Amino acid sequence: MTAAYETIRTRLDGNVLSATFDAPPINLIGPEVVRDLVGLLDELSRPGAARVVVFDSADPDFFLPHVDLTKVAEYTAEAAKGAGPGDASLGMVFRRLSESPAVTVAKLRGRARGAGSEFLLACDMRFAARESAVLGQPEVAIGAPPGAGAIQHLTRLLGRGRALEAVLTSADFDAELAERYGWVNRAVPDAELDGFVAGLAARMGEFPRDALVAAKAAVNAVSLPSSAEVRADAALFQQFVRGEPMRRRTAELFERGLQTRGRTELDLGAVVGRLEAVD
Amino acid sequence: MTAAYETIRTRLDGNVLSATFDAPPINLIGPEVVRDLVGLLDELSRPGAARVVVFDSADPDFFLPHVDLTKVAEYTAEAAKGAGPGDASLGMVFRRLSESPAVTVAKLRGRARGAGSEFLLACDMRFAARESAVLGQPEVAIGAPPGAGAIQHLTRLLGRGRALEAVLTSADFDAELAERYGWVNRAVPDAELDGFVAGLAARMGEFPRDALVAAKAAVNAVSLPSSAEVRADAALFQQFVRGEPMRRRTAELFERGLQTRGRTELDLGAVVGRLEAVD
Amino acid sequence: MTAAYETIRTRLDGNVLSATFDAPPINLIGPEVVRDLVGLLDELSRPGAARVVVFDSADPDFFLPHVDLTKVAEYTAEAAKGAGPGDASLGMVFRRLSESPAVTVAKLRGRARGAGSEFLLACDMRFAARESAVLGQPEVAIGAPPGAGAIQHLTRLLGRGRALEAVLTSADFDAELAERYGWVNRAVPDAELDGFVAGLAARMGEFPRDALVAAKAAVNAVSLPSSAEVRADAALFQQFVRGEPMRRRTAELFERGLQTRGRTELDLGAVVGRLEAVD
Predict the structure, then answer these.
(1) Which residues of C touch A229 (CB under 8 A)?
(2) Pairing mode, strands C8-13 and C16-21
């Protein structure tokens, strides 16, 4: 039933599929992860697929830190295969995730920034380890508006004022603040997180599939951004990615160790607030 | 001024009407309660009616536990008399409650699940006893999406992630979590609840009626679901109610004591997570 | 670069402008404040203007207490100069503030009621001193629905139930409750507030201007009320302002010291709950 993926380890238990991101060294969202995620979405849309999927990460420090900025063209090409005809954006792949017939639950330890946070926001529910979870949208600090769903989801979940704070300050949010603002459903002590999420998932796994699917679709009808909104954000991001501020700030971050395991990635929210690039 | 109802005890004090649900043995939403609620809505729409209504329950364990599943046709027939021409659903009666010229305040002690929670969500504000309040939408666990407003209200109040958690897990929420998520305005210690709500109600009762009505209508214009959305949810529920999973799970629950005062009704959120029915 | 205003003291530091309301005796929103605010909006829309503006008050007790009710025609005439062709309302001036290319951060100490709260709601983010901040929409108690944005913003930020509570009870909210409901981004201890906001502002001031502007516009596209909604609220307010209940209640409040520094203005939320006017 469950296909093998290179960067996502899966294990089926009854009606619940565990999907663990495992793309060393730091789980960057590159072409392989996008390809595997598209494969998983295909799998989940088949009859008889798991009713519930629990996503987590094999890396305690990084859930999904952000996209691989050296491979934008490559991961976008993979997204094009999964996002639907004519669409080539991570935002449309994530929108498809939100519309999956499976219930998607994310268990967050470590960092989820940029498109990593946008992946979480596309899931149906998000539970964060109180001690270690970090969420952030560092895009504006680097020179672009977020392009894969954060604008849409954060504004709807947090309201205008807190969404503007999250997006315009590009700051890191810990689990407690993310819970208070509604970025995650709840912050849960690390020691309780696995049991808590497993309990929810097993419970939902025994509920009638058609009722789960219909209820999720009804909530989506009220809350999901339109495809046009998702496409507009993706187009804006693509435009800014090619801009001079983004180019210079990204270059400075790579000099400081971006995309390697180290202080820059661990403390990215702080680091993007101290760049020397001036525009 | 105040008509006599069989299942709702009313008492007028100045501009504030107290309305206490009293439908033994456990305040099920059956044809009598719906009929009386429709009568009360008629009364409240007359000139000179109370400016503020405070709803509570005569039963400390059950506010409104859910609909009477043995009388779906009967209570729907009563709803048809109050929901407006062509409409026969609890959701449309509750929408009319939301549009009432009176300000509606709910004081929650005990359990409000299913349509009981949806009644609360249709009120203008909700205050819950910290020690005893329980809210839940157990419908999905039993085989149907909620059909009388929970999809619309919870998604708008809680945001997509927390609404999906509430609806898809079918779990019980205590007052503290319900407050944190926005399901109720506030959780208030039981000993302070009566005084707190009475104070708010008396205060609003002295405000100019036209300003109350206009301000409420303006907030409704931003926040109420459309009639089309309410009707779609009702139609979906009616369809699932006749389905095989719902029939089998409901039968199992009745065997365990559903609709009687006892463990099953008291702990329904837990019980629906342990059903033996398999689909 | 920075013009001189009579009622707003400004100071430019790098890309961050500090703007301090200073309109003795109590910072009422009268024609001078509206004129200066319109001037500041013009300034902020010029190329090379500050990227970030931090608003605060020179008066520790009053941020902006409410409009000057003796000068409705006068401040509306000033609003007409800044709100765009054909529009003469504070609500449309505040909407223009929300659309400013500058990031607007409000630092709240003391009271912000009525249009003072609506000014805050139009800003991009709001941080409140835990010890002293008070927010309220006393309009309904006095005889009118709020007319300059509160209906739209509070409903979107707080959800229907809590927005109805805030608007219909006309009660004062302290910083802690305002944070819990989402009226402000965060309540911050007074001793930390200046440093916290200065840090955020300086940080955003170094981010690429085009990215800030584009991200804010994208969030606005999801969350700002339409001009038609803002105009409808303004028209409703203008209609109620001329009504008999509003006239009588305002007269009683002036007898009790409205618009002077004293108990009535300090405790307006309580005072409007004890008026003797009856309708």
Answers:
(1) 221-222
(2) antiparallel
Task: Indicate which CATH number applies to the domain containing C167.
Answer: 3.90.226.10
Q: Do C171 and B203 touch (CB under 8 A)?
A: yes
Kindly report the length of chain A: 279
- Asked if B219 and C155 touch (Cβ cutoff 8 Å), the reply is yes
pLDDT at C3: 59
Give me the number of domains chain B comprises: 1
Tens of pLDDT along B214-261?
999 999 999 999 999 999 999 999 999 999 999 999 999 999 999 999
- The model's pLDDT over C211-255, given as tens digits with 9 standing for 90+, comes to 999 999 999 999 999 999 999 999 999 999 999 999 999 999 999
A56 has a pLDDT exceeding 90: yes
Which of B182, B185, B222 comes nearest C156 by C-beta? B222
Q: Is B228 helix (H, G, I), strand (E, B) or coil?
A: helix
In a domain, C187, yes or no: yes
DSSP at B3: P
Q: Between A and B, how many CB-CB pairs are < 8 A?
A: 106
Interface test with A, best of C123, C206, C220 (most A CBs within 10 A): C206
Q: What is the mean pLDDT of residues C55-60?
A: 98
Ramachandran category for residue A51: left, alpha or beta (phi over 0 → left; psi -120 to 50 → alpha): alpha
Q: Could you list the residue range(s) of the whole structural domain that residue A227 is in?
A: 8-209+218-274
Task: Report d(CA C101, CA C93) in Å as an integer.
Answer: 14
Distance CA C112, CA C134 (A): 6
For the beta carbon of residue A76, count every other beta carbon within 10 angstroms: 19
- The closest CB to that of B169, out of A121, A203, A220, belongs to A203
Instruction: For residue range A235-262, list pLDDT tens digits in order.
Output: 999 999 999 999 999 999 999 999 999 9
The answer to the question of residue C193 being in a domain is yes
- CB atoms A211 and B165 under 8 Å: no
